[in-house]
């Protein structure tokens, strides 16, 4: 896998930011970031683009059982010898060393923030039924839409086409056109997008839906939010 491929870096950065890059793959990506200033810049730009969506999600108070579990764990920690592997003194000592290492790493990681190249008016995270995010859509003030897959979707669209739909409240889906399975697509149909609250992507025959409405399964859906 060529980690210097800009498209692959963008896809991995998106997965890293939204949290779908996990386990060894996430740790490997963090190692790559530590040695690659351009990759760190890509991750920061992706964070800037997705942060408005995070702010749009209303906060949710954790249920009471979560606090009870935390209280039980805290009591259990107090019963551990202070110099055992679960002990407070030992972890404070180790934390001091980690803090020094983290400070040194921050000097390497923190770079001047570049100017934003795109200021979207609306955004949407398009996800499947399992809430796995596959694409990010950014709507500019002029109504153009840039759709970027966070992974290579070519396997899903083998011998098929991916079609983007704008869905107004209480209305029928309107086609915004076909999008690429691997790479960003810029769609300029502001008159179709006007009034839409939701974007969706369906799997269609090559060339798109023959009826003007989705004929195949709807794979990903995302609500548009103002930013």
Tell me the total number of β-strands.
9
Number of helices: 6
Q: CATH fold name of the largest domain, please?
A: Immunoglobulin-like
Helix content: 25-40%
Radius of gyration of CA atoms, rounded to a whole number: 22 Å
Main structural class: alpha+beta
CATH level-1 class of the largest domain = Mainly Beta
User: Spatial order of the strands in the main sheet?
Assistant: 6-3-2-1-9
Describe the protein's architecture and organization:
Residues 99-218 form the Anti-sigma K factor RskA C-terminal domain. The chain has helices at residues 6-18, 23-35, 37-56, 64-78, 88-109, 190-193, and strands at 122-127, 133-139, 144-149, 161-167, 174-179, 185-188, 198-204, 218-223, 225-226. With 227 residues, the protein is of the alpha+beta class. The longest helix is centred in the middle third of the chain and has 22 residues, at 88-109.
């Amino acid at each position: 896998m060529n980690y210097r491929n800009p498209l692959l870096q963008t896809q991995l950065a998106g997965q890293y930011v939204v949290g779908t890059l996990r386990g060894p793959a996430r740790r490997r990506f963090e190692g790559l970031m530590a040695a690659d200033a351009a990759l760190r810049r890509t991750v920061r730009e992706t964070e800037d683009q997705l942060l408005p969506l995070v702010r749009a999600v209303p906060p949710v108070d954790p249920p009471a059982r979560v606090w009870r579990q935390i209280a039980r764990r805290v009591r259990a920690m107090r019963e551990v010898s202070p110099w055992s592997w679960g002990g407070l003194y030992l972890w404070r000592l180790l934390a001091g060393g980690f803090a020094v290492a983290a400070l040194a790493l921050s000097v390497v990681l923190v770079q001047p923030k570049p100017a934003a190249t795109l200021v979207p008016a609306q955004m949407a995270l398009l996800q499947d039924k399992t809430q796995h995010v596959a694409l990010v859509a950014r709507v500019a003030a002029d109504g153009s839409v840039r759709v970027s897959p966070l992974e290579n979707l070519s396997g899903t669209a083998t011998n098929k086409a991916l079609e983007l739909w704008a869905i107004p409240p209480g209305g029928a889906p309107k086609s915004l056109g076909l999008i690429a399975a691997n790479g960003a697509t810029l769609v300029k149909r502001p008159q179709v997008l006007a009034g839409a609250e939701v974007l969706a992507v369906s799997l269609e025959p090559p060339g798109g839906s023959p009826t003007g409405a989705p004929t195949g399964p709807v794979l990903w859906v995302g609500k548009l939010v103002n930013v």
